[in-house]
Amino acid sequence: MRRFSALGRPAQALFLRALVTLPLVSLSLRLRGFHPTRTTLKRRLAHSLAQEDSESVDKQAALAARMVHAADRHGLVHPSCLAKSLTLWWLLGRQGITSRLRIGIRKENGELQAHAWVERKGTALDEPEELDRHYAAFDRELARLPEEERSAGE
């Protein structure tokens, strides 16, 4: 509680939103699957984008990543990397911050493994030890802000 009280208002709001959203996204993935969950989240994104080259936007993105990580550590549910990544992607999108949901695979000890993460400006957010670099990411981007999709199709 002391650590939470020491956070600024924006960080507290992000933490609480992540704390509630993580289990909901996790449950939706389990019951409905990836595409319906992503579609539902996309409907609730901001329609305008923040300035991409702004240092304050980069700081907001880093803060959101830290708060999702903290919500995972301190929450009652510890969801998959896909649920955490979708939650972070959605929180960023709600702020008008562009990011990309990425999914990659690797083969280790004869076993196929998958991992999900969020990238911003080509860099994975909140990935310890650059874990994302150990996976071959699918070329197709799985989630963008609606405005990005319109401009990519033109």
Automatic annotation (TrEMBL):
Residues 25-136 form the Microcin J25-processing protein McjB C-terminal domain. Pfam families: Transglut_core3 (PF13471). This is Lasso peptide biosynthesis B2 protein. InterPro entries: McjB-like (IPR053521), McjB_C (IPR032708). It comes from Candidatus Acidiferrum panamense.
